[in-house]
Specification:
The chain is α/β, with parallel strands linked by helices. The chain is about 35% helix and about 20% strand. Helix 1 links the parallel strand 1 and strand 2. The chain starts with a strand and ends with a strand.
Length: about 230
């Protein structure tokens, strides 16, 4: 598959270390992996999560409030990622769906596309701007809006398995799946809403281990690693 424009879904943990919310070493490793793709003329857009800062709350804080806090936390991560990218010479821009215009630009798809076509990497923060939707769903939505060729989900595992490989040493890894197969097997690739949207828009998903150096570029250069889910 020829890949020109890609949506990369990063977790907040890609910026954090074992003892800090945002760790300089982790942040630099992440942006240096991204730099290889950008230097090879890939149009890259990123959705960043906030698991390093906020993972919701118990019943004391209601779901809507907790989700709003999570959306604000993604803005913090996006600002850190953006600053680090500029420091290594990558032009990037942050767009947020939740109206924090004194910090980053409000999300407008026409401005996003213009930035991509002018050679900037774009970072999406603020989720969808609404509670009850995860950053997985945000990634699927933004991938469709920018007409991405592929959605890459960066994880700590090397693909999709039939059972949890951490719990079952005999778990079987899939090299490829169709959307229908993944649904039939009830595989937890992404949230149901995100997966459904990718299926409707026919955007392939690749689940891969982002924490092995060079894997991002291996996928973008056509090597088959991780698990691809497609029509």
């Amino acid at each position: 598959m020829f890949v020109k424009r890609v949506l990369l879904k990063l977790s907040g943990e890609s910026l954090s270390g074992s003892s800090s919310l945002i760790n300089v070493s982790s942040l630099l490793r992440t942006v240096n992996e991204i730099k290889i793709a950008v230097n090879n003329k890939i149009q890259l857009a990123i959705v960043i999560g906030a698991g390093n800062i906020w993972r919701g709350a118990d019943k004391f804080i209601n779901r809507v409030t907790a989700d709003k806090m999570g959306m604000l936390a993604t803005v913090m991560n996006a600002l850190a990622l953006n600053d680090a990218l500029w420091k290594i010479g990558i032009r990037s821009k942050v767009f947020s769906a939740n109206g924090v215009s004194s910090f980053v630009e409000d999300f407008r798809i026409e401005n996003v596309i213009k930035s991509i076509e002018q050679g900037s990497l774009v970072i999406f923060a603020g989720g969808t701007g609404n509670p009850f939707f995860t950053t997985d769903t945000t990634a699927a939505l933004r991938a469709a809006e920018i007409d991405a060729d592929m959605l890459l989900k960066a994880t700590r595992v090397d693909g999709v398995y039939n059972t949890d490989p951490k719990k079952n040493k005999n778990a079987i890894k899939f090299s490829s799946l169709t959307f229908k197969e993944a649904l039939r097997r009830h595989l937890k690739i992404m949230d149901a809403e995100a997966f459904s949207l990718c299926m409707q828009t026919n955007i392939s998903i690749v689940v891969f281990n982002f924490y092995e150096d060079g894997n991002l570029w291996k996928i973008l250069s056509g090597k088959k690693i991780g698990t691809i889910v497609e029509a």
